[in-house]
Amino acid sequence: MRITMIGSGYVGLVSGACFSDFGHDVICVDKDESKIAALEAGRMPIFEPGLDKLVAANVAAGRLSFTTDLKSAVAGADAVFIAVGTPSRRGDGHADLSYVFAATREIAEAVTGPTVVVTKSTVPVGTGDKVEEILAELAPDMDIAVVSNPEFLREGAAIGDFKRPDRIVIGTEDARAMQVMRDVYRPLYLNESPILFTGRRTAELIKYAANAFLATKITFINEIADLCEAVGANVQDVSRGIGLDNRIGSKFLHAGPGYGGSCFPKDTLALLKTAEDYETPVRIVEAVVQVNDNRKRAMGRKVIRALGGDGTTGAKGKTVAVLGLTFKPNTDDMRDAPSLAIVQSLLDAGVTVRGYDPEGMEPAKAMMPDVTYCNNAYEAATGADAVVIVTEWDVFRALDLKRLAGVMAAPVMVDLRNVYPPAEVERAGFAYSSIGR
Ligand code: UDX
After folding, report:
1. 211 CA distance to ligand 1 middle (Å)
2. Closest C-alpha residue for ligand 1 atom 5
3. Which residue is closest in CA terms to ligand 1's atom 17?
4. For residue 28, is it within any domain?
């Protein structure tokens, strides 16, 4: 198949590379010339484990190419995927669909024959209808079917999630489009990945419902963690105890500083907007958004208390080393990372913040200029009155605790990801606090 992927970011580049690895001919399009130039030079614009090798192999095989010229890339394509950003609009949290509609208008100008236009970006329910209207208005005599095909990729595990999905969701009622999408996903079809055909609006809502549910699950265990601290229970054991019930499942029950990233915060807000538009409030998700936002600030107060302060004051002039800045390990993505709110609350309290992250330093510097950036955990901890683990990168899982204590002004650790067993850290002489234990 001839596939055009519009948008070469976290979703488009991974999806395009994986489709080419299935044997399809893929052209990845992006407006950003520097991004396309980097890709053509074999440099990845994002950090995603394994992506550089996957791209290089398929470029070498002649199945994958990059261009800024959307018109030529769309001409003759069997399927054109829209994988452009749908960020939260400033202020009201609604999904900004301007990039989706701009791409749609350009596609309408470029289509040369029967085509399937696929929204892979996460788009509010009903967006497919609007894309269809634009195409019908600008290319009335073209046979174009609009399909919803949401992605369920986790950053840091995106290639594995694409090649071994729990399911593929295709939203269309057009018979020709269904066949085209079966051909597009044939390699997965053959290895029995369940392909779910639904209506287009249903497919769009499945994406939001999935992410909102995952965000709810995380927020649930985060609140249970607070209760564990109050009653003297262990949240990791509670997670295990409930997760063994196969109706609950053990995943996404790790208590932490709150969820972040480019999806959960954005998608929960967009779902609430849709619910508001249709006057059908989703109150549980409203609570999840509010609890998660409050939690990130509460983590800053937790650190200040560990410094001997009372939550917002009493830590002035202290130094804190923050280990891990990205919203999760194995990514360079800083979007809505818990570290942003935590660092801000520490800076507001007059704390000097030193920081280290294996992959996120560049994007972090742009977002948090007042942090002193260091090259490793021990350098960050040098002279610090506390060390805080915010993101559970593997490199923080086996720190030399004695060495760490030796470089610090005071051996205090706040472990917001429960990386360490408390006894081990206390044996190394640390005053240790964590989540829900
Ligand atoms: C998520 C969904 O998992 C994915 O299916 C969707 O396509 C995009 O959004 P992603 O945002 O990349 O993927 O990361 P994910 O691994 O889901 O983690 C999201 C946030 O939840 C992170 O901040 C992570 O730290 C947090 N999290 C996750 C927890 O706090 N506890 C957990 O148990 C799991």
Report:
1. 9
2. 152
3. 154
4. yes
The residues, ordered by sequence, that sit 6+ positions from 398 with a Cβ below 8 Å of its Cβ are none
Q: Is the pTM of this model over 0.90?
A: yes
Q: Which amino acid does the sequence have at 193?
A: S
- Nearest CA residue ID for atom 34, ligand 1: 252
Helices 235-243 and 200-231: angle between axes, nearest 10 degrees? 140
Residue 223: inside a domain: no
Ligand 1 pocket mutation, candidates 328, 335, 342, 419, criterion most atoms within 8 A of CB: 328
Tokens of 56: 């290089």
Tally of structural domains, the chain: 2
Residue of minimum CA distance from atom 20 in ligand 1:
259
Q: How many alpha carbons lie under 13 Å from residue 136 in its C-beta half-sphere?
A: 8
- Check if the beta carbon of residue 189 is closer than 8 Å to that of residue 165: no
* 248 and 154 in a common domain: no
Cα(48) to centroid(ligand 1), Å: 15
Residue in the block written with tokens 């994958």: 64
Distance 155 CA to ligand 1 centre (A): 8
On average, the pLDDT of the chain sits at 96
Name residues contacting ligand 1 (CB within 6 A). 151-155, 211, 214, 218, 252-254, 256, 259-261, 263-264, 327-328
SS3 content of the chain, % helix, strand, coil (to 5): 45, 15, 40
Q: Kindly give the number of the ligand 1 atom that is closest to the alpha carbon of 254.
A: 33
The CATH number given to whatever domain includes residue 272 is: 3.40.50.720
* Contacts of the segment 187-191: beta carbons below 8 A, 24+ positions apart: 187/22, 187/23, 188/22, 188/163
CA-218 nearest atom, ligand 1: 31
361 CA to centre of ligand 1 in angstroms: 20
Residue 217 lies in a domain: no
Q: Which residue from 316, 307, 324, 308 is spatially nearest to 376, judged by alpha carbons?
A: 324
* pLDDT tens figures, 351-366: 999 999 999 999 999 9
Q: pLDDT per residue over 219-273, tens digit each?
A: 999 999 999 999 999 999 999 999 999 999 999 999 999 999 989 999 999 999 9
Phi, psi of 431, deg, nearest 5: -85, 120
Kindly tell me if the per-residue pLDDT of 93 is higher than 80. Answer: no
Mutate to test the pocket of ligand 1, among 51, 262, 264 (most ligand atoms within 8 A of CB): 264
pLDDT at 311 over 80: no
User: Catalytic residue numbers?
Assistant: 263
Domain that holds residue 51: 2-198
Q: What is the pLDDT confidence band of residue 192, given thresholds at 50, 70 and 90? A: confident
Measured CA to CA, the distance from residue 75 to residue 110 in angstroms comes to 6
